[in-house]
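Worked example 3 (structure in, sequence out).
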């Protein structure tokens, strides 16, 4: 079974962001539903046991409730990705054009970590700290 908590994101160009998330973080497409014009209505991308759901901003009740990065002045949530090698993850994100907002650093308690923004401004925290493993230890 995967995670019981799944982040939901709204993008202006979900097709481009699906490709970016695959390239930068290694997400895999589980399912992508597009309308007749090729616009992403709903997508599920997986990474290990985790998942994000996303779609294009459109005139819907849910989209109207979601703000976009850059329009709010600050984000109100971010996703945290557990990776085995933060240096390799940083190189992939930089190669894919991600904006690094907090450089990679090492913390004795939290491991190696950095923070970046995707091309549409969503915030992603990436690090080697695995809270599931820490709780089991």
């Amino acid at each position: 079974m995967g995670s019981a908590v799944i982040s939901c994101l709204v993008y202006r160009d979900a097709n481009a962001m699906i490709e970016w998330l695959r390239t930068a973080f290694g997400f895999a497409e589980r399912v992508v539903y597009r309308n007749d014009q090729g616009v992403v209505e709903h997508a599920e991308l997986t990474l290990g046991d985790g998942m994000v759901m996303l779609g294009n901003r459109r005139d819907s009740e849910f989209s109207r409730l979601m703000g976009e990065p850059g329009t709010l002045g600050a984000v109100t949530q971010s996703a945290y990705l557990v990776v085995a090698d933060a240096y390799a993850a940083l190189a992939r994100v930089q190669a894919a054009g991600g904006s690094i907002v907090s450089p990679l650093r090492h913390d004795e308690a939290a491991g190696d970590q950095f923070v970046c923004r995707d091309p549409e401004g969503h915030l992603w925290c990436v690090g080697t700290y695995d809270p599931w493993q820490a709780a089991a230890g």
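Notes: Helices lie at 14-25, 61-65, 86-95, 131-136. Residues 14-25 form the longest helix (12 residues).
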